[in-house]
Design goal:
Elements lengths: L5 E6 L2 H4 L2 H9 L3 E5 L2 H7 L6 E3 L3 H7 L3 E6 L4 H14 L4 E5 L4 E5 L4 H11 L2 E5 L9 E4 L7 E4 L2 E6 L4 E6 L2 E6 L1 E3 L1 H10 L9 E3 L17 E8 L5 H4 L4 E7 L1 H14 L3 E5 L16 E5 L4 H10 L7 E2 H11 L4 E6 L2
Parallel strand pairs: 1-2, 1-4, 2-3, 4-5, 6-7, 15-16, 16-17, 17-18
Antiparallel strand pairs: 5-6, 8-11, 9-10, 9-14, 10-13, 11-12, 15-19, 18-20
Length: 343
């Protein structure tokens, strides 16, 4: 009988949205529930489970934890779920016990803890498969599995193209992202990623399709009415790092950035002022906290106008969000118009 203390690392929103996290918690009774990743945190906040948050990838979390640990994931497809486990296993010291909820398998990577795997299998009914991880794709090539043709492919939360096959393979040549197979690149997305600086592909957050499919409900405004205003320019994955108690609202630049930040802000109760130009890829359902305003540019680009608006944000701790939003709408009335007003 397994009697040791267990920490479960939950990855991604689907394990919460589909009820896996709740079921696994009741079956395994772990002493610690840790959420890794950005959108997983958003879903976990609505689950009611007693979780703690780690704003780092699962491999970094696992390398810091002493004792027994299991990765809990629900890939978009079983193939992508297994691929994710392979990547994590290649980045940690020692073996990995990986509970893949998409097809009910307990993967035992790299000669991981068999006693723990047996316990999980007995309690969940998941069969055990033992595997050895690959060494990863390397810093200059990345394979993204489980794609559906036509859906967006993202690197660091930026849509860089659209899948044309079940596997999208990208590479870096002379510092630039290039397609190998299974993907058609989106030039504007590539430009955004290059401007921000693409990390080594073996460490980048890459995925295809929607980042979350559930719409949050019962939204309330929790941010202070006065405080600091933050700016997020095409780096939506930084949202939780930026949201602190003194933040009263966030300026967001870019369509997908606005959608993701708005969704996270809706759960956290923080309003946003979004600047878009109408090229959203539908990677997440729209949801915005009360006090949010979404605009579309009528001249120029969201990049250009967004940075002008960002430059007008005072470096102060006592900005009235509602007053500031009204002033922005007046000041930039010749180049933006409101498409959604949650005030």
């Amino acid at each position: 009988m397994y009697s040791r203390s267990l920490t479960c690392i939950f990855h991604g929103p689907a394990v919460f949205d589909e009820g896996d996290a709740d079921r696994i918690t009741h079956l395994l009774n772990p002493v610690n529930l840790v959420v890794a990743g950005v959108m997983g945190r958003t879903a976990a906040a609505q689950s009611g489970l007693p979780v703690t948050y780690a704003n780092t990838p699962p491999s970094l979390v696992m390398n810091r934890i002493e004792g027994d640990v299991a990765l809990v994931n629900r890939g978009k497809t079983p193939v992508s779920g297994r691929r994710f486990g392979d990547i994590v296993a290649s980045r940690i010291s020692g073996g990995l016990v990986h509970i893949e909820c998409s097809d009910g398998i307990c993967y035992l990577w790299n000669d991981g803890d068999r006693e723990l795997a047996d316990f999980i299998s007995d309690r969940t009914g998941y069969r055990i498969i033992e595997l050895q991880s690959t060494q990863g794709d390397g810093q200059e090539i990345r394979l993204i599995c489980g794609c559906l043709p036509g859906e967006p492919v993202m690197v660091e939360g930026i849509t860089i193209g659209y899948a044309t096959a079940e596997e999208a393979v990208i590479s870096v040549v002379d510092g630039r992202l290039v397609p190998i197979r299974g993907i058609t690149l989106k030039p504007h997305g590539i430009e955004k990623l290059q401007a921000l600086g693409c990390p080594p592909l073996d460490r980048a957050w890459c995925k295809s399709g929607m980042v979350r499919s559930i719409v949050p409900h019962n939204l309330v405004r929790l941010a202070p009415r006065c405080g600091r205003v933050a700016v997020i320019d095409h780096t939506a994955i930084d949202t939780y790092r930026i949201i602190t108690p003194e933040i009263c609202g966030i300026i967001t630049i870019g369509d997908d950035t606005t959608a993701v930040c708005g969704h996270i802000g809706a759960v956290a109760g923080v309003p946003i002022f979004g600047i878009t130009d109408g090229d959203a890829d539908g990677i997440i359902p729209e949801a915005y906290a009360p006090g949010s305003v979404i605009t579309i540019v009528t001249s120029g680009t969201d990049d250009l106008i967004g940075r002008e608006i960002a430059a007008s944000v005072p470096d102060q701790d006592d900005i009235s969000w509602d007053t500031f939003v009204s002033s922005l709408l007046h000041q930039f009335s010749d180049c933006i118009r409101v498409v959604r007003d949650n005030r």
